[in-house]
Amino acid sequence: MTPALVVVGAGPRGTGVLERIAANLAEVYGDHPLDVHLVDPHPPGGGRIWRHDQSPLLWMNSHAEDVTLFTDDTVEMAGPVTPGPDLAAWAAAYRASTLPPPAVAAGPELDAEIRGLAPDGFASRRLQSAYLGWVHARVRATLPPQVTVHEHRRAAVRVEGAPDGLQRVWPAGSDTPLTADAVLLTLGHLDTGPDAGQRALTAFAARHGLTHLPPAYTADSDLGALAPGAPVLVRGLGLAFVDLMVLVTEGRGGRYTTGADGRLVYHPSGAEPVLYAGSRRGVPYRSKIGYGWQGDPPPLPRFLTAEVVDALHAAAGPGGPDFARDLWPLIDKELGWAHYHRLFTTRPGAARIAWDDFAEKYAAAAPLSEELRTLVATAVPDPADRLDLAALDRPLAGAVHPDPAALQAALRAHIAADLDRRHDPAHSPDLAVFLGLLSVYGQLLRLGDSGQDWHGFFSYLASGPPGPRLRRLAALSEAGIVHLLGPGTVFTADEESGLFRAASPAVPGYHVEARVLVEARLPDAAAVRSADPLPRGLLDDGAATGPGGLLRVDPADGRLLGPGGLPHPRRFALGPHTDARGAGAFTRPRTNSSSFRQNDATARALLALLRGTGERVPVPVPSPSRGTHVPDR
């Protein structure tokens, strides 16, 4: 009987593992026959999140040159490198007619976008879908004839089978399961059920005839309840908010022109709701940096190294290190190191002492100490040249305005200043801090769950929207379509009025009421509250959960762990629903991506199991000299 592998989820992560299976096949499995079953209701390659069937107005959040699904010689793995083009190089090859057009590029709109895509441009998600579909087709074409791939355009609803026996995967609506020697779950981003707070808000909305839209992927949300001209409260100013903003403005017929002063002007269609948006910070994520790196990068990591993280983890025991006590001081010092290395290198006149002298004293000073603050104040006289993470994180904290109009003006000024700075190479220490953030993220991945507080801080500074999105936001504020409520916004369900309410201390005494509340954030990855019956069924069968309700897996090869920490011999899982979450399924080229390392180790373990050796393949430890990257989704 031909060995069989069932892969549940044929999106970018499933495609990445399939690529590693193709690369490792000859060495680990040989020329034996193999059946691979791909179970996914969405087209392979893009999957649900990156499917072609979504608005062309929705963009990626990474530069085209920073997106690849192919390994390179920086990836520390046991398998061979199989190079391939990143998104920008793929588009260039398409323009040069050295690649056939993607199957989904049937119309002139997508064709024109491919032809106009620059390396530092931002592709639409539909264009990314075309790239991912091409990658999937290319991987399939590299498989030898003895490997047969079967597609099942359905969801998988449960997995059954004893650990030492064949597994049965049940597609939705099918009376016949797929029989497998091994199962790999690459489920991607899942919907989750509401927590207690969200359930209370939904119940409040039902009692009073209101609308509450819980966290969701904005492209899948039903925005029909956002009526033209009606006030809508929006909680969150991250990337989900940006998608919402686009869909209810340009997506409803609004348009932009450039005014005589060079600023964008928004022309409403009349179909837009009026958005009142707030968050803890009260400001949108920082703009993507609009220039490339020149010169030598900062020597990273310097203080938060792999050895330091491993030592902290070992000393802390099962609960892991405390973020605020053990990790944040080192993060602060690491990011400062990146910032000052660049400042001293590119603007020596900004410092009173030489870099070598500063670096020696900086390294010797304790993190967050008075000694370190005194050193920086003495060496860098202009406060504007010093790195202040607290001010970056909460730029408008404590500011009070006399009325909402004054607040809007202050917020537009903040956005304009951020855009100017993030697109000016004279402020390249900001880019050095970005590289420092990537380095820190790569080290924290060694701990499995890097902590929600850190992830939010990282996303705010390093994974913000493209500059054009923020320019549009400022124009929408000028047009009165979007009102930013300020930092510390509190959203409540007011039983007395029967309405949702939002208020910020930025304008004392001011509040807004509305019949609609939108949670502009993505669902969390908790398997314990997943709306998908498959991960819930795994938990019922004894799969272990870790922090945040994530499925626990063996970091060596992605095998699912049981309650006693024992790895399941035939079930594997990779992705955001597990506690071995790495960078995104695709990543920046030449960054030793943790996801690519995971994909290779899991592919080799699967092939060894299917071949009958059951060999365990360790995941190589990342080089301390390389970082990683987390794309937008």
TrEMBL record:
- Give the residues annotated as coiled coil: none
Q: Which domain of life is it from?
A: Bacteria
Q: Which residues form the FAD-dependent urate hydroxylase HpyO/Asp monooxygenase CreE-like FAD/NAD(P)-binding domain?
A: 6-189
Q: Known SUPFAM superfamilies for this protein?
A: FAD/NAD(P)-binding domain
PANTHER family (alphabetical) = BLR0577 PROTEIN (PTHR40254)
Protein name per Swiss-Prot or TrEMBL: FAD/NAD(P)-binding protein
- Which organism is this entry from? Streptomyces odorifer
